[in-house]
TrEMBL record:
The keyword ATP-binding applies. PANTHER family: THYMIDYLATE KINASE, UMP-CMP KINASE 2, MITOCHONDRIAL. GO terms for biological process: dTDP biosynthetic process; dTTP biosynthetic process; dUDP biosynthetic process. One of its GO terms (cellular component) is cytosol. It comes from Sphingobium boeckii. The lineage of its organism: Bacteria, Pseudomonadati, Pseudomonadota, Alphaproteobacteria, Sphingomonadales. It is an enzyme of class 2 (transferase). Signal peptide: none annotated. It holds the Pfam family Thymidylate_kin. This is Thymidylate kinase. The keyword ATP-binding applies. ATP binds at G13, G14, E15, G16, V17, G18, K19, S20.
Length: 211
C-alpha cells in the first residue's frame, strides 16, 4: 500500500507508435519513484478477457462484423476492469494499461463507422463508464508508425492490425479528435525520436499526478 490513491493511466495510439515499449519504460521510471503499480493491456488483462482477445485477434478478417466486435471488446473490458483494474486501484496501486476505452472509440467507432455515443453506452453498461485519470496518446507520422509496426510484425499482423492504410489513418484521426475534445484527461505525446526522449515526455505529462 502506498497510502495514496492509485491512479489509472492508459496509453493509446495506433499500431507501432511505441505503446508497449513505453509502458515498460514508464513502469520502471515510476517504480523508481516509489510508486507501486501493475502493468496490463487490452484486449486482455484478466483470464476471461485474454480468452476474448484470442477470439478478437485470431481468424479471418470477416470473422466478426463491427457490432459483434464492439460488444466483444466491451465484454473483455468489463472483465478486465472488474477482475484486474479495480482491485489494484482499491489496494492503492497505480494501473498502467496498454489501450482501454479510447481504442474502442477510435477503431470500432471512428474507423469502423459505429457511433461514438453507442461505444460510450456500451462502456456505461459494461464498465460503469469508468474513465482513466490520464490518457497518454502517442502520435507518430503515419509512415513512421507503419515502418515500426512492419519491422516488428514482419508481415504477420493480427485481424485488426492487418486492416488497410485508410482504416489506420481514420483510427489516428479519431484519436486526435477525442484528445482535442478532452484536454483534461488526454495528453497528446510526440512519439518521434529515441525511446528515452519519449519516456521523458510521458513523465512530464504525468507530473501533476506523481508524488
Ligand atoms: N522510439 C522508438 N524509435 C524506434 N523504434 C521504436 C521506438 N519505440 C519502439 N520502437 C520499435 O517499434 C516497434 C513497435 O513498438 P511497440 O512498442 O511494439 O508499439 P505498439 O505497442 O504501439 O504497437 C517495435 O519493434 C519497437 O522496438
Ligand atoms: C482495446 C482495443 C484494441 N483494438 C485493436 C487494436 C489492435 O489492432 C489490436 C490489439 O492488438 P495489440 O497487439 O495488443 O496492439 P498493438 O498492435 O498496438 O501492439 O486490437 C480495437 O480495435 N479496439 C479496442 O477496444
Amino acid at each position: 500500500m502506498t497510502g495514496r490513491p492509485g491512479r489509472f493511466i492508459t496509453l493509446e495510439g495506433g499500431e507501432g507508435v511505441g505503446k508497449s515499449t513505453q509502458l515498460a519504460a514508464l513502469a520502471t521510471a515510476l517504480r523508481a519513484r516509489g510508486i507501486d503499480l501493475i502493468v496490463t493491456r487490452e484486449p486482455g488483462g484478466s483470464e476471461g478477457a485474454e480468452a476474448i482477445r484470442r477470439l478478437l485477434l485470431e481468424g479471418d478478417a470477416g470473422r466478426w462484423g463491427p457490432r459483434a466486435e464492439a460488444l466483444l471488446f466491451a465484454a473483455a473490458r468489463a472483465d478486465h476492469l472488474e477482475k484486474t483494474i479495480l482491485p489494484a486501484l482499491a489496494a492503492g496501486q497505480w494501473v498502467l494499461s496498454d489501450r482501454y476505452l479510447d481504442s474502442s472509440r477510435a477503431y470500432q467507432s471512428g474507423a469502423s463507422g459505429l457511433e461514438d455515443a453507442d461505444i460510450l453506452t456500451l462502456h456505461r453498461i459494461g464498465s460503469e463508464g469508468r474513465l482513466p485519470d490520464r490518457t497518454l496518446l502517442l502520435q507518430l507520422p503515419e509512415a513512421e508508425a507503419t515502418r515500426r509496426a512492419s519491422l516488428r510484425d514482419r508481415g504477420d499482423s493480427d485481424r485488426i492490425g492487418g486492416r488497410d492504410a485508410a482504416y489506420h489513418a481514420r483510427v489516428a484521426a479519431a484519436f486526435a479528435q477525442y484528445a482535442a475534445g478532452d484536454p483534461q484527461r488526454f495528453r497528446a505525446i510526440d512519439a518521434t525520436g529515441a525511446p528515452d526522449a519519449v519516456t521523458a515526455r510521458l513523465l512530464d505529462a504525468l507530473a501533476d499526478l506523481t508524488p
